[in-house]
Amino acid sequence: MAETSTGASTHKAQPATQSWNGVPAEPEQTGWMGWILFAATMMLMLGIFHAIQGLVALFQDEYYLVGKNGLTVHVDYTTWGWVHLILGILVAGAGAGLLAGQMWARIVGVLVCLASSVVNIAFLAAYPIWSLIMIAVDILVIWAITVHGREMKANRA
């Protein structure tokens, strides 16, 4: 028998769960997995909502409660429309990545939901109730991703 010169063990760590015959079992899913699916689904919805809000701002800016001078950030609704449209695409893309269990989607998801909440605070005067709902959903999504994100990674492996 040949020994390695370092004497170090090359064994991999055993998984936490094994089946009765010693073959590694699939990772155990917990009830918290639902929070990640919730976050991913809500991110897809938030992306669609941002896109709709952006299209309305682009094509029907008189729909909103105040003119551009009444907004927190004084830019025209065309600019707001593009901001919402691009943010919506990013949020929906991160939500799709989160459904696939991608680690990058967890990081991007937190960042785009943070950006979404800031954009909705700035847009609060134009559409107050809707902006508050979007901020609340953003906070729930950030919580679900940061607290329970590891569950999705374990499921993917």
Helix content: 55-70%
Could you name the ranges where pLDDT drops below 50 across 5 or more consecutive residues?
A: 1-5, 7-15
- The whole-number mean of residue pLDDT values reads 80
Q: How would you sum up the major sheet?
A: none
Q: Regarding quaternary structure, how should these chains be classified?
A: single chain
Order of SSEs = HHHH
**Main structural class:** mainly alpha
Number of helices: 4
State the distance separating the first and last CA atoms. Answer: 34 Å
Radius of gyration: 22 Å
Task: Assign an overall shape.
Answer: elongated
Strand content: under 5%
Count of DSSP strands: 0
Describe the 3D structure:
There is one protein chain. The chain is mostly helical and about 160 residues long. The protein has a domain at about 80-155. Helix content is about 65%, strand content about 0%. It is built from 4 helices and no strands. The chain has helices at about 35-60, 75-100, 105-120, 130-155. The chain is elongated, with a radius of gyration of 22 Å. It starts with about 30 loop residues before the first helix and ends with a helix. Mean pLDDT is about 80; it is low at about 1-5 and about 5-15.
Give the SSE map.
Blueprint: H1 33-59, H2 77-99, H3 103-122, H4 128-156
Helix pairs in contact: 1-2, 1-4, 2-3, 3-4
Q: Briefly, what is this?
A:
This protein has 157 residues and is mainly alpha-helical. It has a domain at 80-157. The chain has helices at residues 33-59, 77-99, 103-122, 128-156.
